[in-house]
Amino acid sequence: MTDPAASAYRRFRDELLHHGLLISMGVDGLFGRSGGFERVLEGVNAAIGAVGDVDRPEVMRFPPGIGSLQLEQSGYLRNFPHLAGTVASFSGGDDDHRALLDSLSKGEDWSGTQRPTGVALTPAACYGAYPVVAARGRLPEAGALVDVYTWCFRHEPSIDPARMQMFRQREHVRIGSPAQIATFRETWLERARSLVESLGLPMAIEVANDPFFGRVGRILANSQRERSLKFELLVPIVAEAPRTACVSFNDHRDLFGRAWAIEAQDGGVAHTACVGFGVERLTLALLRHHGFVPGDWPAGVRHVLGL
């Protein structure tokens, strides 16, 4: 029996490819982007920036890689081993090179000639900010506020075009006291709602949980929901399928403060929170709800995006 959701994902993906907005790279969840797609995406990114710039955050831009030790320190490997990715490279001598060439000529697996480089692929844009802030010492009374934007990787190949393996996140990260964290999250819940409404997209904000791995992960997910530590702004990108999380609001409590020994102004462990926008997902939502030709979109939406 055909899965209606899978058929809907495949149909939407094929439409995006047909209109030349996405470019197939032969791997599920891995796409090139056309100039038209990028113009819309950068309009989305600029609109997010316009909302957050009033807070005068510190801007940090990181490459799509972090140190493997940083990934370990974050706890990501313990909680999400199924999503993590690392970078390996050839580091052998002549004998190893010959073995590699032999494997290639036979069409065999050659990955055994690769060795870890100490670089991991970034799973979330905010991960680069915490060690930087921690290295500065005790936080000032105002705490820290950082604007980050980078490519991320999560290993979850899918025919759903909104579930890409490599994608971009625009995040604002708040580091400080529990009261500062609460104010930050309430502010961004309202800001994100208003922004997505201005884009003419249907949406809802609901309590959510991260995709923790295994039996212990189910306990963590239940706890996260019970304490309302994560909210998601959901948009129905494919009508026949479940709604897609396009913005997430995360209260980490002191998890990352302890992981990186970030010291609050009062000498205690700092709390952290972030709001993350999936710019590809919001771009796909716009294409689904307004059509594949941005020039035909409502004037108000084009104005917000600068198109």
From TrEMBL:
<dbReference type="InterPro" id="IPR045864">
    <property type="entry name" value="aa-tRNA-synth_II/BPL/LPL"/>
</dbReference>
<dbReference type="InterPro" id="IPR006195">
    <property type="entry name" value="aa-tRNA-synth_II"/>
</dbReference>
<keyword id="KW-0436">Ligase</keyword>
<protein>
    <submittedName>
        <fullName>Amino acid--[acyl-carrier-protein] ligase</fullName>
        <ecNumber>6.2.1.n2</ecNumber>
    </submittedName>
</protein>
<dbReference type="GO" id="GO:0016874">
    <property type="term" value="F:ligase activity"/>
</dbReference>
<feature type="domain" description="Aminoacyl-transfer RNA synthetases class-II family profile">
    <location>
        <begin position="152"/>
        <end position="294"/>
    </location>
</feature>
